[in-house]
């Protein structure tokens, strides 16, 4: 033996080399170009220059090697640690696939690089409402087919208005946000996909607000423009708008009563149609490194 002799001297007895069960793969160095005596019996010299255990084949011998026959000790599989920051389902270099995740606050693709662990300080989440309901606190026209305002699917919650009439409050909640533990809310965008059946200028927003703890915030995000006659998304608020609140907490956003409110007014007979209501929350994660 060459390099292996010095490393194995403590356990070589007479002329026979026996593998101690406590010896680990790669514990001893060897020369891949050397002979069979580079490593103790039951181990072979891998291409990376380390002695490794030879997997047993069904007949008791060593493995057949290669990607089709299993790892015979000549291939040293790559681990997630050595592949970092790559993540997802990756090739270990020996014919197997390993799934590599990321340690919080990092996520796979979170740093805007697909397939790599990363973390972006400023982030956003968009969710659609899971609960749609109306309240008769204001207005005088009822909404129908409320659940059809949950998703963008060309099905609508509707209200049939005459001139000078206003709808009851259409409310959306239970958005199901899940934010990082120390998320700081920067702004809230409310998107409403809607259209008018009837006069092209008949319908307008009367009241558009964000709900925190079930109560409307101070800012009315209603737009002055008439509703279009084909579905279009109107975005209220912005990435920096807190809708008149001093702050909105992570707990507020994740609560089931966080949501939105809409009322519509008519200048002529028309039917208001709401296809979908979504909220995008913009936030900063202080746990992300710069």
Descriptive report:
It contains four helices and 16 strands. By secondary structure, it is mostly beta strands. It has three domains: 76 residues, no CATH class; 43 residues, no CATH class; 161 residues, Sandwich (Jelly Rolls). It is elongated. The N terminus is likely disordered.
Q: Would you kindly provide a brief summary of this structure?
A:
With 290 residues, the protein is mainly beta. It has helices at residues 3-8, 66-69, 80-83, 250-254, and strands spanning 43-45, 51-53, 88-91, 97-100, 107-108, 117-118, 122-128, 131-135, 157-161, 169-173, 184-198, 203-212, 215-216, 232-237, 259-266, 270-284.
The N- and C-terminal alpha carbons lie at a distance of 52 Å
Helix tally equals: 4
Radius of gyration: 32 Å
| Helical content band | under 10%
Write the H/E string, N to C: HEEHHEEEEEEEEEEEEHEE
Question: Pairing-aware structural class of the strands and helices?
Answer: mainly beta
CATH class of the largest domain: Mainly Beta
Q: How big a fraction of the residues is strand?
A: 25-35%
Number of strands: 16
Largest sheet: 5 strands, antiparallel
Which runs of at least 5 residues are low in confidence (pLDDT < 50)? 1-19, 56-70
What's the overall geometry? elongated
Count of discrete domains: 3
CATH architecture of the largest domain: Sandwich
Average residue pLDDT: 85
| CATH fold node name of the largest domain | Jelly Rolls
